[in-house]
User: Fold this.
Amino acid sequence: MHKSKKSAGITRRSALKQLGASAGLAGAGSVLGAPMIWAQDIKDVTLLHLGPSYSAFPDMAAKATADLGFKVEVQNAWTDGIMARVVNQPDTLDIADLEFWATQRVWRRGNLQNLDISRISNWDKIVPMFRDGKNFDGSQMSTQGTLPYEVQYVDGDGSFAGGATDQATIIPTIYTHIPQVNL
Assistant:
């Protein structure tokens, strides 16, 4: 079990809240507009990113650690394992790299924090299918499965919103774009 580490009254949970956009570490390459923490010693803080094998890269954690000045650890887990941790042991991780269908299933438990998109400087650069519910050509996405856009935004009360708001559930970081091929 991952334990919270404290330094000068700062926990990894409070550091994450102050960083806000740190969820973007899983593939974003930077902290996407996270604020600096001034006049506080956070070098002993450790943030734990739990994600599937395609997003839990030790070299990314090492780079984030070097760039941010505190330790970022990664653990690999299947999506069902990540969901179980979010639901049953939310205090054992800081960044849950969930797929959209999994977000839909665990969000209502109240164990995940909304993200203020105004604090994410590159929000407008996120692929339109996540941000706007549109394909690259501007057309509406298919309605099969869990649409990213349906679980991307939340209202002030934390429920899924019917459209874009200033609060997001997750920062989409990894996807595969398969171009349409006419056979």
User: Anything to note?
Assistant: The first helix runs from residue 12 to 19. The longest strand covers residues 46-51. Residues 1-8, 19-39 have pLDDT under 50 and may be disordered.
